[in-house]
Amino acid sequence: MGLVNCRDCGGTISTNANMCPHCGTINTIQNEMLYEDHLEYEHSLAEFEHQLEMEEFEAWERADAEASKFTAIMVIVYVVFAFLFLLFIGWVMNDV
Ligand SMILES: [Zn+2]
Fold first, then answer.
1. What is the DSSP letter of 19?
2. Which stretches of the chain score pLDDT less than 50?
3. From the CA of 9, how far away is ligand 1's center (Å)?
4. Any bridge partners for residue 70, and if so which?
5. pTM value?
6. What does the alpha-carbon distance between residue 92 and residue 50 come to, in Å, rounded to a whole number?
7. Which contiguous run of DSSP H or E holds residue 12?
8. What is the pLDDT of residue 76?
9. Structural domain that includes position 70
10. What distance in angstroms lies between residue 33's CA and the mean position of ligand 1's atoms?
11. 12 alpha carbon – ligand 1 mean position (Å)
12. Domain count, the chain
């Protein structure tokens, strides 16, 4: 906590004070700090949102990869079953 001079009346104001206790002028240094805090907050919020989006995207990509893997396995299973079915048909036909 520091002291600054009011830009209007020259009186000392705490950097934590929102306004000058002598003339009531808004403490711009304090407000700048608040504004910077706000900007920093907005920035970290945006970063956090971006991170969330990335995680969501990655999760979606993982799910998509899982789905692709599942589809590939299903295709292989179908092909194997079709092959076995044809083999069985051929076997039955030859037997008859
Ligand atoms: Zn003042």
1. B
2. none
3. 4
4. none
5. 0.40
6. 62
7. strand 12-14
8. 96
9. 3-95
10. 18
11. 8
12. 1
